[in-house]
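hiii so my PI (J.) wants the whole complex modelled not just the main chain, which honestly fair. so below is everything: two entries, each one labled with what it is. i double checked the lines twice but i was tired so who knows lol
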Amino acid sequence: MPCKNKQCLVDKGGKCVEGFSNPAECPRYANASQPTEEESSGDAPEAAAPVDTAPEEDEEGAIEERELALSSGAPLDLRQAGTRMRATGAHLVAIVGATGSGKTTLVSSIYDLLGRKEAPKGFEFVSSDCLSAFESLCHLARAASGRVVPDTEHTSHRIGLTFLHLGLLSPSSLEPVHVLFSDRSGEDYQAAMNDRDHCKDLIELGYANTILLLIDAEKLKNRAHRNATLAQARLMVESWVDADLIQKTHRLVIALTKLDLIKAAEDEQKILESFDQCVDNIRERLGSRFGQVSSVKVASRPIRETVPAGTGLKEVLDVCCSEPIVLAHEMGEISSPDRTFLQYR
Amino acid sequence: MSDKQATKNVLICGLQDSGKSSFLGSLWHLLHSGECETKLQYGGLPANRERLNRLADVFRKCERLGRTQLADAEVLTVQLKADGRRLELTLPDSSGETWRDLWETRKCTQSIADLIQASDGVMLFLHSDYIDTPLPVVTVTQQAELIEQIEDNGYQPEGRQAQPSEEAVEYNPRLAATQAKLVDILQLLARPPLGGPEKRRLVVAVSAWDIAMDEGISPTQFVETYLPLLGQFLKNSKDYAAYRIYGISALGGSVPTDAERLSTMAQQSDRIIVVDDSGERSCDLTRPLGWLLEQQEKQ
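here's the output for the full assembly
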């Protein structure tokens, strides 16, 4: 017998949403077979009315109350991100990397740590337009998911480009800093590496204050994969430069992710050295095209306690929340509202 | 005394079982009985007082209050006196599902939206003992492994057998952390289409404070410890003009467990506990309401 509360799944083996350990004690479940006074008189609201519609009568003559659609709490699309940037001067951080390199995990871990009082030192939560999205993204890393090993749902290629918003208080700023982290499938970035036209579609790179390039440390464990993975990272950066996406206003942060998975590995030192060499190589060959190039080693959400959760995220946030680079000779040439990206509202 | 009567609206909100209706019942008893000195005073009987009387009756009998159902949602009106002036205060008594649905369905009925938009101040309730804090998988797995090592007898943590990763439980907004739901609700209340340009004051009422007070920490420390995201939001966000956190025990204990002890108290108002960060303890439930309305009086 289904409960009168349509959202309660107690008849399907779920818990009583009213909190009764014995569902028979719940008045809504116990009376489920009896029509309510309102239902009997035909006054009960039926299924949720369409959002933002005027009250309508259903077939039985009952008036459905108008409903307002609220902010979805989902990741922001390009238009919403543009609006957020105009309103708050949000910093745009493009998170780039191959599939499975930990792009979404990095952002969701920042949120999760803020909520567990384990945030990178000096950073505090202010607000977020994407709380529903963050809670959903954290789910597979929480015990309620029933998983044994934490995971993050991979961003689908079909979703395209979205943004996750976090308002933060940073140690270097008295005022809140709003950050928009891009979220796009790793497949897109890998495809763009092979095609200049495709590369030009990576709109978030052109307008980013910071580009965060992630390299999966686990893939560096195997020597053959190590060379290929590092070469891919170099090629990615070069392809952006080739597509004229990079300016001196860009900060590039090259992050070695999943540090916990190589800690105590036999060739941990060699892996770290090869990563450092890759960073040096990129800096040497392409560094002059960027305003700043730095590197960091990260363990956003360690599977093993070989390193603390959130290792390296303070360094990442320090860069993401720092003042945008403004080139003296460009000042006055392009005003912010004229930027195409900011016209999406 | 001026006869001019102002009408003020305080939005009472909170998830299920957060103590909203208990607060209203105790408040009405407190005002009507005059047993305790209060910041806002009883100003007479409202025309419609059936709901208030019913809630106060449940309080006096030390009974467990039946959960407010959606169909029962009602705007209560109390007549008050403040500094010699008459004041009509409206307080909606709505179910926790109303506020939960803002988070889960991202929709709001027009009638609730009207209540929100008409409010002069917001009072958010959270129950000190009903806080869902999701545990990280890693923590649970490590705890299970520790038990495994201790027992050293082929023990398999239950979770591994019952819910292997390929059968992971799908995400449902109901599984979200309490603090995320509360921050989201506060953001929704403060921003369009529900919030207007005028910033309101906010009171966060940590209910069942009789349980939490054993920890010896202030209401703000409680929120910062157990709901750090909410604590940071309150401190750093600019969505509200000002905020205060109170520890409130409208019942003075658990009912029906403590009913016998509570019912023997000389004055039923003595059951009530209201604590602020200064450590000042009283039974005056109108203190948070008075503070919410102070700003309005000044404007």
